[in-house]
Amino acid sequence: MENKKKMAFNVVFLILVFAGTIYGVFHGEDLGEIARILKTVNLLWLIPGFICVIVFIWGESIIIYYMMRTLGIKRKKWTCFLFSSVGFFFSCITPSASGGQPAQIYYMKKEKIPIPVSTLVLMIVTITYKLVLVVIGVVVTFFGQGFIHKYLYDVRYVFYLGTGLNVFCVVTMLILVFHPVLARTILVKGMALLERMHLMKRKQSRLDRLNASMDQYRETAVYLKNHVKVLVNVFGITLFQRFALFTATWFVYKAFGLSGQSAWLIILLQSAISVSVDMLPLPGGMGISEKLFLVIFAPIFGTGLLLPGMILSRGLGYYTELLVSAVLTIVANFTIGKGKKVRENVGNL
What we know:
This protein has 14 helices and no strands. By secondary structure, it is an all-alpha fold. Helix 11 (about 230-255) crosses helix 12 (about 265-275).
């Protein structure tokens, strides 16, 4: 019942944010003129943009497949692709992408994959996923002030906030992994403080869940120390995966017949948007992503093509991802764990 209420809240929240975004973007705009411009787009350039979205989803599935193999668990690449799709779908529709991993763990459990194993794999996926944004944000902040003043000046504080939140997230996760005793002490004292302030009821079950989580973090630390090469490989795949999605905006740029700006510049600008919005409590960064695009890409697309460019870029980078992952989540619901005798060997955990 609690899960149903939470899902209902997420759906209502998603609809409200979507409605607000549509109103904010199109209010006062000439929809007929926008439609006319969109009809002039070279659709052939959008095909590789669509492929970029598929590569983005596929990239995480390769990571899951690869890491499962290192743990002695053999699953088909197609099954891992469905795991990845489930994660992206629920991440797209929940605030701060909070619903992705619980849904993946649920479907992995249907495939008889132990929860500690799935938690370990997805935790490393999350760390490397955020780490790519941290690297981009930190490098641009400390070595790209000229770039910021030229292209991001009006939104620089949002970019700095996003970078800071991603750094905080990654550092926190690494502390949990490599210093679980310190992390547990901080969390226990924090909960005790909230209980004394009567902001949280005292529950033994909460402490039990915390202890179980610490066990999972310790297992992650052991795995990372023994599989450094695996972590490096996963980071490399994640880097390729994320930049594949950023590249979709360049194909949108070319679809309008535009030229004069390098692919690298457009990819970096799109990555700056991702850095800025990734940690914000909005499904898919909806609303703020559109606003940032209209500000950052104004000198790239020009006044006339800016809004149509945003529509196609977000259409590929978020809504196409949402649609594709939704269809594959339906497939996963009817195929994963159904009528299969699963063989497993979890030897290396």
